[in-house]
Amino acid sequence: MTTTDIGPNTGPRETVRRPSRFLRNLSPKIAMLPLIFTACVVFLGGTLWTVLYSFTKSGLLPRLSWVGLDQYERLWSSRKWIVSIENLALYGICSLIGTLVIGFTLAALLDRKIRGEAVFRSIFLYPFALSFIVTGLVWQWILNPELGLQNVVREWGWTSFTFDPLNNPEIVMFGLLIAGLWQGTGLIMCIMLAGLRGIDEDIWKAARVDGIGTVKTYIRVIIPMMRPVFVTSLVLIAAGIVKLYDLVVAQTSGGPGISSEVPAKYVMTAMFGGQNLGQGFAASSMMLLMVVIILIPWAYLEFGGKKHG
Amino acid sequence: MKLSKILLSGAAICAATSAGAVDLEVMHWWTSGGEANAVSKLAEAWDATGNTWVDGAIAGGGDTARPIMVSRIIGGDPPAAFQFNHGRQAEELIDAGLLLDLTEVAEANNWKEIINPPSLLDACTIDGKIYCAPVNIHSWQWMWLSSAAYEKAGVPVPANWSEFMETAPKLQEAGITPLAMGGQSWQQNGAFGVMAVALGGVDAWTKVNEGKDAEAVMGPEYTKVFEAYGAAREMAKGLNVQDWNQATSAVIEGTAGAQIMGDWAQGEFALAGKVAGTDYECLPGLGETGVLSTGGDAFYFPVNSDADITAGQKELAALLVSPEVQVSFNSAKGSLPIRGDVDLTTVNECTQKGLDLLKDGKTIPDAASLLSPDTTTQLNDLLTEFWNTPAMTPAEVQQQYADIIASAD
């Protein structure tokens, strides 16, 4: 009853004091000003500037000489761009599913109160402390047929063993994926573990009383309860996918041929290798568009829906 | 009185020298052993004039270094001097008025007369003004062959491309990869350029690269080149290396027969203690068409508001072209000097072949001074795709090559 009483009371009071609404909590608002400025000028302004100049034929330096949609036409007729998009989609889907599944499984295993949990947690999280450049180089060596895994297995006696993903255009993206998963799952595991620890012990007791199996409890009860944790993980993974660049540069430099190119690398090569800013801007605008297309419906469902509900 | 006069004049001298002596930051991407040694010759020469050379080396090659340099220039914090390959890379910086006009220095030192071939200076010239000081000549037009590999296969070292193709199966039987090719796209594009000049002839090459003639790409000369390039792709199977010097060391070790690579590869042979003519052979123009492309490095000088630095920049530009620096720098780097009136201290058989071609005027401009970096990037992408996609036929790549040339600026 008390909660419903506050609702109607605050409502009218706010309508009376409407003019002072902007002045309420003034000091935090002032403190926010730099951030608001950054968001508007750097993020929004920079984005608009980039989109604007993607309609020009800017070379090494930005120039306002309009060419309409030429840059976009060239972009979409470029074989390398198509390959980049396909690669990103493949990497994105596999990395998203792989990271979530492996991350959650590891977290669930650690959550079973095993001995030496802290040791395992550190080991799994450790790769995250390495940059993508280091990760890429390490995995380039591990996957190198003469130095790495293939050679080791052959020395064990299995001489026909062949595992050379980085030199095979068909499966090179999986070579990148292995490195990406190795680097990224540790963090997701930790976030998941924190989520699991947040689950009330009573839930487990109730499930046990009802005679529900452990796996089933995880899938049917725990995972739905961990929705916010999954959303956080999803955002982190998705951001990592879109900006995939340094791993590729360190591990394969887009090779063999153009078979492991990704959009961010296309942008960098066009802008700085090819001295063609317009083309790079067009490509980065398309990247933004892709993110927006995925993000807006999701944000609407996630945040827009709640207000009405 | 006397003492104060002496002190005053002493102070004046100090002031004069300190006004003349400047610290110049020079950015470049020469970081391998031989290259760093060559840069130190430049730095020594500059320091000997009483000025200070502030070294701004960027590791990772031109593709990494150029964006850093450009962003510093555009960002208003330019180095005093920076290295680019002469050609069209600096075109827009010059258009935007960001680089210092060196015409005055060039005229005072008579660059027009001494720089050989003249195309080097042309590459620095825009609207009659000179904007860069060329320091060396590098040429792509070489094939390096391993004597040991051919000895093992029991065939004589080929003297031209067709002999190379004939003997290639023998090498494969002996477990040697006939052609060493690194995985980076610029190497595959560069090798194609060499084959185009050697097998398609200078005329067809000029039509395509200078005239941007797409029909010439579809013509019979280039058809031959694309077919040869497709055949070369088969010869390169079995060796997976990335960097050009890894491919070179395969030739040095004799695990690969030959490599098409610019004259900078010779530095690797020298470093490994190999002797031209006995341990390895070199074929300019693949032994078919003996010409040299004259690419190379040049220094550009961003405009600076400080008059002392501007004076220093001009002094450095003159110094880089001077005979002493040309000899010490190019001897260390293994490149050819940009002036015909100096003698290098160490000249082996291969360098001599290059010098002879230069003397005879058998030179062509470097593709980088004819094609924009944008076009070069597109060609890199196309040729590396072809090289790594066995299903792609020479006819397909020829058509796409023609499309890129047709839209080139």
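qc> Chain A has a mean pLDDT of 86.
qc> done
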